[in-house]
Design brief:
Layout (H helix, E strand, L loop, with lengths): L8 E4 L2 E3 L22 E3 L1 H17 L3 E6 L5 H10 L3 E5 L9 H15 L4 E5 L10 H9 L3 E12 L2 E8 L2 E8 L2 E5 L11 H6 L9 H7 L6 H10 L6 E2 L40 H13 L5
Parallel strand pairs: 1-4, 1-6, 4-5, 5-11, 6-10, 7-10
Antiparallel strand pairs: 2-3, 7-8, 8-9
Helix pairs in contact: 3-4
The structure holds flavin-adenine dinucleotide (FAD).
The site of flavin-adenine dinucleotide has 32 residues, from helix 1, strand 4, helix 3, strand 6 and helix 4.
């Protein structure tokens, strides 16, 4: 590997409703999700995307910047990313982003990545577990005018401005080479995301965006007002950057609901009820018979 250069990565992550833990009405009257009725989690494959970016930094050096577009509470996934090793995080939050479909989401993210500049790799999860479209990654690459490697399972090499990566396809693996900058969508089988570090949890305990100041002042009355809190956090590099539409060179008509040709009409959560049960003897034969049945039914394997 002749290349001594470092690689700067941007990781796009999404806070998603934990569809396994639904409480209350999930839909608002305007057809958008009632996110407060759903506990929120880090989109699983975005953790694999972050892990791949962190491994690139460990191998070649460079910076890992994590971005998310979402409501104020989406800052939670940014703190989680810092606890796992991200160097920098940015929250894109503005009422004008709300209700965005994949077209409007990728447009806003493209505007933010262009503002950031100086990137070599953009990492996304293959898919978000709520919209499930797997469209944002490819759309963002298209808008940035850069090549894309989807279903990426590993980076084989980075050499100068060239990347070789392996894709996980239904019928096998595919090796792809392309020039940088490029965008990768990462699959769950790519790696085992590292857990948050206890030391970083303590280090970033107070980290917050300005959108969280009012609620934090209730918890920390020792800070007289938002300006004092802002100064305190800024001095300690704990103020998390917030970008609104005013910070981006974008056409507001292409953002949020107004920029979304697709609108979610209704979301039904299907709960699969078991119709019959079967007792499995707790021994080798029993387990072997169960596995065979699951394979025959195409449930696993
Ligand atoms: C049930 C449901 C169905 C929907 N159906 C559609 C539809 O058919 N068409 C449509 O256009 N929209 C649809 N939407 C809206 C869509 O969820 C949003 O546009 C969303 O922001 C992006 O689409 P996605 O969730 O499918 O993400 P995907 O395209 O599956 O996400 C892929 C990757 O892109 C990145 N990413 C996605 N969203 C963000 C974000 N906000 N911030 C940072 N990175 C991000 C992540 O790395 C993620 O892993 C649907 C939403 C819901 C809840």
């Amino acid at each position: 590997m002749s290349s001594a250069r470092t690689y700067n990565s941007v990781v796009l992550v999404k806070q998603v409703p934990d569809t396994h833990n639904i409480t209350g009405n999930v839909m608002k009257n305007d057809g958008t999700l009632n996110r407060s009725a759903l506990p929120a989690i880090f989109n699983p494959e975005d953790l694999n995307a972050l892990e791949m970016a962190l491994q690139v930094r460990e191998r070649y050096g460079g910076q890992v910047t994590v971005m998310t577009m979402g409501p104020p509470q989406a800052a939670e996934v940014l703190r989680d990313a810092l606890h796992r090793g991200a160097d920098r995080v940015i929250l894109l939050s503005d009422r004008k982003f709300a209700g965005a479909d994949t077209l409007a989401t990728s447009y806003a993210l493209t505007g933010a990545i262009k503002k950031l500049g100086d990137y070599d790799l953009v990492f996304c999860g293959r898919q978000a577990i709520d919209g499930d479209t797997a469209q944002v990654g490819p759309q963002t690459a298209e808008k940035l005018g850069i090549p894309q490697i989807t279903y990426a399972e590993s980076i084989v090499s980075l050499d100068g401005d060239e990347i070789v990566a392996e894709r996980a396809l239904p019928l096998g693996k595919e090796l792809v080479q392309c020039s940088l900058p490029c965008l990768l969508t990462v699959v769950a089988s790519a790696n085992q995301p590292r857990p948050p570090s206890a030391r970083k949890r303590i280090e970033y305990k107070l980290a917050a965006t300005p959108l969280e100041y009012r609620s934090l002042l209730k918890k920390w009355p020792e800070f007289e007002n938002e300006d004092v809190l802002d100064a305190y956090l800024t001095k300690r590099d704990l103020k998390l950057p917030l970008w609104t539409t005013a910070d981006l060179d974008v056409d507001e008509e292409k953002l949020g609901l107004s920029g979304s040709p697709t609108q979610v009409y209704k979301v039904n959560f299907v709960v699969l009820e078991s119709t019959q049960s079967k007792e499995i003897p707790a021994n080798q034969e029993g387990i072997a018979a169960l596995l065979q049945e699951l394979v025959q039914e195409y449930i696993v394997g």
